[in-house]
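Justification of resources, computational component.

The compute hours requested in this renewal are based largely on the per-chain cost of generating structure records like the one below. Each record pairs the submitted sequence with a full structure-token output. That output is archived, and it is also reused by downstream analysis tasks.
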Amino acid sequence: MRLSHGLVLGPLVVGGQGLWSRVTSRFPLWHGVGMCRSIVTLRSPEAVADEEVRAAALQYVRKVSGYRAPSEANRATFERAVDDVARSTRALLDGLVSGRPVPKVSR
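The structure output for this chain reads:
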């Protein structure tokens, strides 16, 4: 199969809950059906704590970078990425509108 950007997919290989394929580059492509088990859904009717948002951002940056703990040379870039992802995640969660009515609190 030829992708729009000219790469050719190789055979699909089962891995975990999805499929991997090799392309004519050095990186395999993931055709997954699920999400990383470490990353949890944060959207909920209750407010999400900043610590939970930062923990999810850290997991995401670890997964994308391939580093559990960056070297000293990469620490500033790694931390900046975690901050950026946490800020974007907070903006996303704060901006989402639920289709459900907000429960009324009796006083």
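Residues 36-95 form one domain. Confidence is low (pLDDT under 50) at residues 1-9, 12-18.
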